[in-house]
Design brief:
Layout lengths: L1 H44 L9 H27 L6 H25 L1
Helix pairs in contact: 2-3
């Protein structure tokens, strides 16, 4: 009896991530579909205005977040695993964050001129 309940628990544990991924995909699909229909109707009505997007501020925020997460992951992975390929899990976001911060600095310098 114990083995049957253990197998059932393993099946349920295996199904939970699959159901979560499917449900998340359904939510994203309907969000994109309804957003597309809304924009289409706004364009037909002549009321659509392009949303403002500040690339400089976005690159600063994203760069800082990726840099801090990457730095923390790199430090923890060095302590836990030493230097090996698993360290890439921290170095990749760290390097991406540094790249975005360099982009922010370069872009901000261009606007000042």
């Amino acid at each position: 009896m114990d083995q049957a309940s253990s197998e059932a628990a393993q099946v349920i544990i295996s199904i939970i991530p699959i159901v979560g991924i499917v449900m998340g995909s359904v939510v994203i699909f309907f969000y994109l579909l309804w957003n597309h229909k809304r924009r289409t109707l706004l364009i037909k009505a002549g009321q659509f205005g392009r949303p403002n997007f500040d690339l400089t501020t976005f690159s600063l925020l994203t760069g800082l977040l990726l840099f801090t997460v990457g730095l923390a992951l790199t430090i923890v992975l060095i302590i836990a695993l030493g230097i090996n390929l698993g360290l890439l899990g921290g170095i990749i976001p760290l390097a991406t964050g540094i790249g975005l911060l360099v982009f922010y600095r370069t872009r901000r310098g261009d606007k000042a001129s």
